[in-house]
Amino acid sequence: MRRRLRVLLSPQQLLCVVRHGTRLVEGSAQQIAVAGAGSHWQASVDALRELLQQPAIAAARLPLEISLSGRWSQLVLAPWSDALLSEPSAGRFLQTQLAALYGDNARGWSVVGDDAPYGHTRLVCGVDSTLLQALKDVAAECGHACRVIEPLLGTALRTMEADAPCGALALVEPGRITMAALRDKRIVAIQSQPASEAWRLELTQAWQRWTLRAPELAGIATVAVTDLSALSPALALAPSAALHLVPEALPSRFVLSANPFGERATVTGSAAQQPAPAATPEVAA
């Protein structure tokens, strides 16, 4: 199977790793801090361009699999409707579901739903259309095929162990926790909330609150946790951080999963501030 370059695009950082089938290539992981990190995605797209211009990556020109941070890939579960049976009514219905939650800005997003069976709720993902086009343009400019652009939650779900008996997934990003209840590896409920660096404590509390509102989730015995929180070195040295830096501090219900982007190298300087190196889809919900 051909190798691919898996990349996480987020406001604070880019992560990347070379994937060969289901295996991550040892020593290929990188973590790059993004200059001018904020809510807009342009700085991260610029950092992606510089990543793809690195001599080794430019020479390999591997097809890209891009995962988008939850900041830029908005998810909602849409109820079943007969409007989903055909286009263009299906697209209008899914767009309306996103707009009801995220406002009129969602009407300019590219929207895609999963392939849930007839009569079931459908997971819907909305992404800024200009961001999608910018990613495709950068990939083409640097000579890479862009095979997949998907929400990070989808990447975490696809990379879970095939035999992992987990009824839910918790994805931890800087400043955000997203929890998803699963049935047959399909997302059937989703909940997101802000988080601080002490996410290990907050995750337990967030799960308890969610199960109080949705008692049918209380029977879930195991929650797989994908940690992409990227704690800063300064925080990691702080005595007060000791509790949430120790895996054993998580209750037994929560099981840390393998990082889909591999063991990260030391954070490099902000990509947008480094000199440019020498010369060198699909949207899935």
Keywords:
Nucleotidyltransferase, domain 5, 285 residues, disordered C terminus, 2 domains, six-stranded mixed sheet, globular, alpha/beta
Task: Characterize the structure shown.
By secondary structure, the chain is of the alpha/beta class. The chain folds into two domains: 1-159 and 260-285, 2-Layer Sandwich (Nucleotidyltransferase, domain 5); 161-257, Nucleotidyltransferase, domain 5, CATH 3.30.420. It contains eight helices and 14 strands. The strands form three sheets. Strands 1, 2, 3, 4, 5 and 9 form a six-stranded mixed beta sheet that branches. Strands 12-11-10-13-14 form a five-stranded mixed beta sheet, with helices on both faces. It has a three-stranded antiparallel beta sheet with strand order 6-8-7. The chain is globular and about 55 Å long. Residues 231-248 and 271-285 have low confidence and may be disordered. Residues 266-285 are annotated as: Disordered. Residues 271-285 have a biased composition (Low complexity).
What would the CATH topology of the largest domain be? Answer: Nucleotidyltransferase, domain 5
Counting DSSP H or I runs of 4 or more residues, the number of helices is 8
Average pLDDT across residues?
85
Q: Tell me the major beta sheet.
A: 6 strands, mixed
Q: Please state the structural category.
A: alpha/beta
**Helix content, binned percent:** 25-40%
CATH class of the largest domain: Alpha Beta
Domains counted in the coordinates: how many?
2
How much of the polypeptide forms β-strand, as a percent range?
A: 25-35%
The count of strands amounts to 14
Shape, principal axes of CA atoms: globular
Which series of helices and strands comes N to C? Answer: EEEEHHEEHEEHEHEEEHEHHE
Name of the CATH architecture of the largest domain: 2-Layer Sandwich
In whole angstroms, how far apart are the ends? Answer: 23 Å
Rg, alpha carbons: 19 Å
Low-confidence regions: 231-248, 271-285
